């Protein structure tokens, strides 16, 4: 029983990391309506800019993390403006945009490798002794990851329901041409969406690096299909679905280690992805609109 509860605690941490990244990807798809395979590169930008800020510039880790989150958000906007937006203006189909983002992923990740190298790095944070919270035993960093994810999820909910920007995002998600005809500045809303999506990817990358302890340029990209599994399980483009999908996938990955080797735990996400596409391809939350 204790082993089950310990593993459950790790599953909650994995779900928290996954939720941050999955909500960012789902938010972008909900507004732009195309899949972004370069998303893993934004996780890497967040990881490594934070590393440089906290190790190279000796900033406090929380401040370095903030710099990393902002940098990944700005990187997402820059890539959209320089590369993706011209394709969208020409009316390029979603299939060809998918191929473009796949190429972007290779370019950006190799650029990250050229800047930060191919080896493994780690943040200057001591692991410390595990803290006991009821039946769970987690490090301070893992507890911090869960708290940050919970705060961000509440923030995303308030953004979508209480702000003009969030309502504009939801309107574009439901019907972009109608939103534009209603006076919504769709270009500005799209830019903010890319920034938030990139920022959440960066934060997801930082928390993933804290959870795995060591990381390299392709660590986030390796995690990408797990993120896609959570997004598809919850319903593509559905923010709250992505949160639920992240919780289910994160727990499934961790609890699977009780019966199979941990080396195959990520394959469980792939299995859930395949079963979802076979049984309920529209995901758990099949409602009108996306965000």
Describe the structure in your own words.
The chain has 291 residues and is mainly α. It has helices at residues 2-32, 39-56, 61-89, 94-116, 140-162, 164-181, 186-212, 219-222, 224-234, 239-256, 265-279; strands at 121-122, 131-133, 136-138, 214-215. The strands form two sheets. A two-stranded antiparallel ribbon has the order 1-4. A two-stranded antiparallel ribbon has the order 2-3. The model has no long low-confidence stretch (mean pLDDT 90). The termini are far apart. It has eleven helices and four strands; from the N terminus they run ααααβββαααβαααα. The protein has a single domain (1-279), classed as ABC transporter involved in vitamin B12 uptake, BtuC (Orthogonal Bundle).
What are its keywords?
two-stranded antiparallel sheet; membrane; 291 residues; amino-acid transport; single chain; ABC transporter involved in vitamin B12 uptake, BtuC; 11 helices; mainly alpha; 4 strands; transmembrane transporter activity
